[in-house]
Design goal:
The structure holds two protein chains of two kinds. Chain A is α/β, with parallel strands linked by helices. In chain A, strands 16, 26, 27, 28, 29, 30, 31 and 32 form an eight-stranded mixed β-sheet that branches. Chain A has an eight-stranded parallel barrel with strand order 17-18-19-20-21-23-24-25, surrounded by six helices. In chain A, about 30% of the residues lie in helices and about 25% in strands. In chain A, α1 crosses α9. Chain B is about 25% helix and about 20% strand. Classes of the chains: A alpha/beta, B alpha+beta.
Chain lengths: ~750, ~230
């Protein structure tokens, strides 16, 4: 493809500057702002706007004397591409606003290309940004996507399910659930290929530092505070400030060490404690660079002045500041007659106009650069689980394996942690109502948590006394229920609480609380002041001989353990307010919610802190009760299936179909399950790869695992185990595609 | 920081306009209680609990109040239980809630009265809103409007935080809604005695209970610059 050059009439005038990356959209490149700043410093300069498609709208800006649409990155011969550019560089300078182009240019080492050297780019590359060690800033936690699904899920839980899935150079998508993360990863992998990572979200105010440097010497730097941003976080208005000395001084030393040439931008989030978190280090000027020029800091002008040795026609170093703040606006300009507009938008724009979202063709260039993902080592199964698989006998598939050693280990671990702390444990029956787990619970001295009269009846059958049962469901306890008084009963509504108070159904009568900032259908909504007043009034009516309790349940694995703990604290604070208002004491605090087994230490630490706070606040507190379910039994069962078909796709990826389906593993899209092949006496986990395991039913979503590395010899008849299937995968499994209706299944149970 | 300027004190020898003088006579808003009933005690306890559980960063004013209530006419006298149930509250009620919430969390705050200058159209719009709700609007005396907000004490400085929009009010900005006069209110649970005569805002020395007219606020209507900010 030939380069498209639009030459201006008239004699060329030095200096000529090629400004690369001129798109002007909601996510703009810095070319237009850079050119306007250069124009201010050098009114007679020849400015050449360069980009890689006519979709780059900023090329129409009359600030450019020439427009150069170079061949697409995915198509051109890079050597020819460079020689064309090098020809122009005999009489021109180049300032690139495209990160990947900067990377490519760094290897060329041309004196008139004003960009940092390769070593500096390596030191400032995402996600590690090793150079930041010299700055008084923090870096948000990151994890490569290649680390594997279980690690990713753990990372997200630890960061309260607010993480950014980021491309290696560009683009970031916020994910707040496992399905969102998978969707974001899939989209970004499709655009950028490999090298993706997740980064913990940091909340606070956006702050950036832009600078210009030549051969390690800092020419000037400026800080902006972002006052308005687009949904992608791009600044739309900002105020310009001096860089604080605690950043400026080390930055100066660092740039010297990196031998930095060119523009640069450090993007920060300033948190509520005014600590700076470094999110990005961009090897180019920011798109808002002209905002700094308006405030008297013309960074591109200074850079060219220093590099060329030519004095700016106006005082680039200290232009008169027009304002210490700037706003970005949208306005139409005449299109250049000699520059083709993109084709009119087709019905399916993303398909019909390749590159519409990335007019400079960076995705194609990224793939061309061919980043390779480091190989991953599959996780090792823990000893108990491996032993369980060794002892297991799988005759029929699909089959749910009870993993005895793993279960015993989980229950013992919980008992050993809770007992010395004086914290009571109630096994959440709904998680998996199997007699084996009931027996284990009773042997561990756990109470039973039931959510329905049917569960209460089952619990009594298993040998628990009514006084060892905690009732905590939205279905009010019926008048005819036999097993009362229970140990404790928590009402889901004020109406139920009043009923329980009138005919005490339990030694402790309480209510489930829905704290502020937690959308839930359950519990009494104390976020509403009228409801809070009604709670207080109802509590005043509770007979004096009935003890009062508060309950809160939320899935820590889905909202994150930090948030779970914060919400529990909210419940304690509302309990404090109720005590002060009514004079009634809180006797029992019940904290429930599903936490992942691998969060055990985090969970127990949180429970200890909460119990300490509760005992401090509630002087009459008799019991802190936790209700684990997932943490005890999730790893204690595996779903075993058999490969019924193995396929190799034309692209090389492999898929197997197994004789289990989504009805056997209903949580498959909620959290990742470890997947292993059982061979002989050993189970070997699959690593991360491009392959998939498909379920047996005819539902599109019946995909039991994605992103796995199937062994080369996987074949029909192989036995594949889906681990971590002992919690809601077991209790919520359904008979789909088996010729069994819900009614007939119920009759079979009867 | 330049040394603090002395302000004019109330009653000043001569205010720059009669409308301004009228606004300085306004009594600060105060929520009342239904004594002997659970309702207002529960409302105050609820505000306290909400303040303690709100996700505000340490030592920051209660932004949750700005998110929860929209600004609009309140009919006075107003009780605590009526205030927490309302959908809209005026600046006086919002400031009462914000001060209570701040004190619960240990943030040192005072109540602040302001008089600001506005453009005629904005004042007419507010008057119409108040009239539509059948609430008197004597807080508007064109070209001025009376406002209440929270003063957060940082050392010897007072920073103004507005519970209407949850934003810090920067001082000294010209144009739209510029501050003409300010009064720091005494009382409350905060011992102001520890700051006798030493508190400043935007370089102006404030004295508890006394109106301070900004020295550069004369001739406002004639020299009003163009609007530069939309914050109210």
């Amino acid at each position: 493809m030939r380069d498209w050059l639009v030459r201006a009439t008239g004699d060329p005038f030095m200096p000529a500057i090629i400004v690369s990356g001129c798109h002007s959209g909601p996510n703009p490149s810095p070319g237009v702002g850079t050119a306007h700043s250069l124009r201010q410093a050098f009114p007679s300069a020849r400015l050449i706007g360069r980009d890689f498609s006519a979709l780059s709208s900023g090329l129409h800006d009359p600030v450019f004397d020439e427009v150069w649409i170079a061949g697409r990155w995915g198509e051109v011969d890079l050597n020819t591409h460079w020689s064309l550019l090098a020809d122009r560089l005999t009489s021109a300078w180049l300032i690139s606003g495209l990160d990947l182009e900067v990377t490519w240019l760094a290897d060329r080492g041309h004196a008139r290309v004003l960009c940092p050297p390769r070593a500096a780019l390596v030191a400032t590359a995402k996600p590690t940004i090793s150079a930041a060690a010299d700055l008084p800033v923090r870096l948000p936690e990151t994890l490569p996507l290649a680390a594997g699904d279980c690690e990713l899920h753990r990372f997200c839980r630890r960061n309260d399910w607010r993480v950014w899935v980021k491309g290696p150079e560009h683009e970031a998508i916020l994910a707040t659930s496992w399905s969102e993360l998978q969707s974001a990863a899939s989209a970004l992998e499709g655009t950028w290929g490999s090298g993706l990572f997740v980064q913990a979200d940091v909340s606070g105010q956006g702050v950036s530092v832009a600078f210009a440097a030549l051969q390690g010497e800092l020419l000037d730097a400026v800080m902006i505070e972002k006052h308005a941003t687009t949904p992608e976080g791009k600044v739309w208005s900002g105020s310009v400030h001096q860089v604080p000395p605690e950043i400026a001084a080390p930055l100066q030393g660092l740039l010297r060490k990196l031998d930095w040439t060119g523009g640069g931008e450090l993007e920060f989030i300033r948190d509520s404690a005014r600590k700076l978190w470094l999110i990005e280090w961009n090897p180019r000027f920011p798109a808002w660079v002209h905002g700094a020029t308006l405030a008297g800091h013309n960074l591109p002008g200074l850079l060219l002045h220093a590099a060329s040795g030519e004095g700016p026609e106006q005082r680039a170093a200290a232009p008169s500041p027009m304002s210490t703040a700037f706003a970005r606006i949208v306005v139409e300009i005449p299109a250049r007659r000699d520059l083709p507009l993109p084709q009119p938008t087709a019905p399916f724009p993303e398909q019909a106009v390749p590159g519409a979202k990335h007019p400079s063709g960076m995705p194609q260039f990224a793939k061309r650069l061919g980043r390779t993902e480091p190989p991953t080592t599959p996780e090792e199964l823990d000893a108990e689980l491996q032993q369980d698989f060794t002892e297991a006998t799988c005759t029929n598939t699909p089959q749910r394996l009870h993993l005895r050693r793993t279960a015993e280990h989980a229950f013992a671990r919980m008992r050993q942690a809770a007992e010395p702390l004086g914290i009571a444990v109630a096994y959440s029956i709904k998680t998996n109502p199997k007699p084996a787990f009931a027996a284990l619970s009773r042997r561990s001295g756990f109470l039973a948590e039931a959510i329905s009269p049917d569960e209460v009846a089952w619990v009594v059958e298993q040998g628990w006394k009514p006084s060892d049962i905690v009732y905590n469901g939205p279905l009010p306890i019926p008048e005819r229920m036999k097993a009362i008084p229970l140990g404790a009963a928590f009402a889901d509504s004020l109406a139920a609480f009043r009923q329980y108070a009138e005919r005490p159904v339990a030694h402790v009568v309480g209510m489930r609380v829905r704290p502020p900032l937690y959308p839930s259908r359950f519990g009494v909504d104390v976020n509403v002041p009228e409801e809070f007043q009604r709670v207080a009034a109802a509590l005043q009516q509770l007979p004096k001989d009935v003890r009062f309790g508060l309950s809160f349940h939320a899935p820590g694995s889905e909202i994150g353990m930090v948030r779970w703990e914060q919400l529990c604290r909210s419940v304690i604070e509302f309990g404090r307010a109720l005590e002060e208002l009514t004079g009634r004491s809180v006797s029992m605090l019940n904290l429930g919610g599903g936490a992942a087994p691998t969060d055990f230490e985090i969970y127990i630490a949180a429970v200890v802190r909460l119990a300490t706070q509760a005992r401090d606040v509630f002087q009459q507190l008799e019991s802190v009760l936790i209700e684990p379910g997932r943490m005890l039994v999730q790893s204690a069962e595996a779903l075993v299936s058999r490969v019924v078909e193995a396929r190799t796709l034309p692209t090389g990826e492999r898929e197997v179909v197994v004789d289990a389906g989504i009805g056997d593993l209903p949580m498959t899209r909620v959290f990742p399950h470890r997947v292993a092949r059982l061979r002989g006496e050993r189970a070997v986990l699959f690593g991360r790869g491009p392959d998939r395991i498909l379920g047996r039913t005819c539902m599109e979503q019946d995909i039991l695992a994605t992103g796995v590395d199937l062994p080369a010899d996987v074949a029909v008849g192989d036995v594949i185990a889906f681990c971590d299937a002992g919690a809601y995968d077991a209790s919520m499994a359904y008979a789909f595609g088996t010729g069994v209706s819900r009614e007939s299944a119920a009759q079979m149970v009867v | 920081m330049p040394s603090a300027r002395e302000c004019l004190v109330s009653p000043p020898p001569k205010w720059s306009s009669e409308s301004l003088a009228a606004l300085t006579r306004r009594v600060p808003s105060a929520l009342s209680r239904h004594d002997g009933h659970l309702c207002c005690a529960a409302a105050i306890a609820w505000v306290g609990a909400m303040a303690r559980v709100a996700p505000e960063p340490h030592a920051q004013p209660p932004g949750w109040i700005s998110h929860r209530w929209r600004w609009g006419p309140s009919r006075w006298p107003l009780t605590w239980c009526e205030a927490v149930r309302a959908e809209r509250l005026d600046c006086g009620a919002l400031t009462e809630l914000a001060v209570e919430a701040s004190l619960v969390t240990g943030l040192p705050v005072v109540k602040i009265q302001l008089i600001q200058e506005w453009d005629r159209e904005r004042l007419l719009e507010w008057q119409a809103r108040w009239a539509a709700a059948s609430v008197e609007s004597s807080w508007i005396q064109a070209p001025f409007a009376y406002h209440e907000l929270v003063g957060v004490l940082r050392g010897t400085s007072v920073m103004l935080w507005d519970p209407v929009d949850g934003l810090w009010k920067e001082g000294g900005q010209p144009g739209y809604g510029r501050v003409v006069a300010i009064r720091l209110l005494p009382g409350g649970r905060l011992p102001l005695s520890s700051h006798p005569g030493t508190l400043t805002w935007d370089g102006v020395r404030l004295r508890s209970g006394l109106w301070c007219e900004r020295p550069d606020s004369t001739g406002l209507a004639a020299n009003r610059p163009s609007p530069t900010s939309l914050s109210t």
